Amino acid sequence: MNRTLKIYIAFLVLIIAGIIALDTNRSKPINWAPTYATQDKIPLGLYVLDHEIKDLFPKQKIERFGTSVYEYFDPKYNFADSTYNAKGTVLIIAEGSDLDPTSTEELLYFVDHGNTAFLSMKSFPEKIADTLKFSLESDFAFADKIKFSLTAKNVRQQSFEFDRGAGSVYFNSIDTLSTQILGYQETNAVKTVNFIKVPYGMGYFYLHTQPTVFSNYSLLKGNNAAYCAAILGKIPKTGSLYWQSYSYNDNNISSSPMRYILSQPALKWAWYLFLIGMLIFMIFNAKRRQRVIPIKIPLQNTTVDFTKTIGNLYLQEGNHHLIIEKKIIYFLEKVRNDYMLDTFDLDENFIQRLHQKTGKDKALIENVVRLIKKHRNHLESSQKDVIEISKAIEKLK
Questions:
Q1: What is the pTM of this model?
Q2: CB of 66 closer than 8 Å to CB of 249
Q3: What structural domains and CATH numbers belong to the chain?
């Protein structure tokens, strides 16, 4: 190693040491990320609410779940009598809606059966907005503080002030015939609706546009905890409280084997120095030390050609009955895999559940089921039958 290379390496080490020294002496900035996770002690986490929620609901069973709404509640559905084994309220607090379409349908179905959903977020699924007939709007006018108030007269303090984390989202249109206004927010003397109660089926939706009121920062500042308690006091005291809390979800925890090392500053910098050292070693030892790897032509995928060949054989033989049978098998397999439905009995209950899962016209589903049963009751089929059932199945895709 010559003298110039030694000087370069020493200079690089000094720069790294200086960066580490500056980073160690620098105060850690406050993390204002709106995670709304129960394990987070940052300002916009839910660590405080997680430890106080039992005092807010002393007589109710609190069940936390970290999976999607569909994954949690679908096993609790009793297909025999179309009821749920779970009764109570679903509580979801998040910056924005991460409900997938299947979970949204499951949540609507759960509330329709006489339960309650309390959602506090700055945006809601389009399906819920269309079903409950409301829309949101954002006011981008600058304001240092936002005042919140409730319509209930039994709240001691009628106005609460929030600053950090509060958004400007509000309900700009609602169904006034069925929707009940429960709270307002005021920005620059403009009063808008931020908390409503909407009936759906035999249950109710409580929709709130300011999740920041449940955060650590808000609950520990002034008397804002009274506002949080007043809002959660609207939740019915019957049944259990099902809280979607992602800190209890293994998917929310990093699966990387380096997660602990990267979470500790000393170990993190030791790891970075190791990587930099390895990079320097590789740069100055980049000489090829292995023989040339021969190029191997990958095996050709002949699946499509095989499928075409089998299809042509069926067509040439004129075995229309077998073609229909294969189409039915493929269709029912797709229903089982995509919608998790039992296809053993193609009865009215199957038609209803498939209609709810897919949102397709019920008449189209009934037509496909009718054609499947017709095929199973006949020993022979014609080309017309193949075309008819193919078109019917295509309309459901």
A1: 0.60
A2: yes
A3: 47-252 (3.40.50), 303-394 (no CATH)
